[in-house]
């Protein structure tokens, strides 16, 4: 049984009405069906037992590589490290040119120009530059600061902005404040796509994750993203499944498709394939594309490359096969 469902009154006309006032938005979000936690976790666990092999596995490994937002978000990041990451994203396996490139390089805003330039020099301009913004990872700053952060990243060449919501405002029930913040950041993005990060580990309940998903999509998010990767609980199969069901139901209600990005804690090819099975079984082929599903990761790429070579040669690579990130 599905663990999510669009509200009964969520027709194309009624959804435009729910954002006309704080009271209407609150009524709508609090009126969303409650999440059956046991059912959600059982379905996520069941999907995780599916097994794929040989040709299907090879396809899944390549698809997962093409969906990675290859990420470095450390205070010690340097231009050299970002350039090295861009080189890895552009040619993940220098010995095999059939290896797909990653979807994006994700960095802090002050490194966006470095990444953009490096990718152009590598002839990999199709790889997007994603920049975190809006006082990542806490989201605690005044709106003028958040908007300036966003505009600076876009001006530096960011094709995508990963913003964090004000979890304090959301948890206090100030839904319209969060809604308007997302709208303003979306406007500041210009042509850049907007990913909205919830930090699911801090939202604490599945009901809150469902509300945040609908809130962000109503405000214009192009993607909804689980987490920053900076807290104890990041992407999990149940919270990602819940978000996939939300985007499915949002498209059914509005006709607009929104992407999903789990981030943090996805480190092995086996885990990535489980997420792809979940996508296929929950929202279908329409989301099995880097345009609509991404992995926020750093070390995941190494394991995908080693598993890919194992399929090709029948043996695992030595420890010097992949770079240490």
Task: Explain how this protein is built.
49% of the residues lie in helices and 10% in strands. The chain has 325 residues and is α/β, with parallel strands linked by helices. It has a single domain, classed as Aldolase class I (TIM Barrel). The chain has an 8-stranded parallel beta sheet with strand order 7-6-5-4-3-2-1-8. Helix 7 links the parallel strand 3 and strand 4. It comes from Streptomyces spirodelae. Its EC number is 4.1.2.4. InterPro entries: Aldolase_TIM, DeoC, DeoC/FbaB/LacD_aldolase.
Secondary structure tally: strands: 8
Q: Architecture, CATH level 2?
A: Alpha-Beta Barrel
| Overall structural domain count | 1
CATH homologous superfamily placement: Aldolase class I
Percent in helix: 40-55%
Task: Identify the quaternary structure here.
Answer: single chain
Sum up the structure in keywords:
325 residues, alpha/beta, TIM Barrel, 8 strands
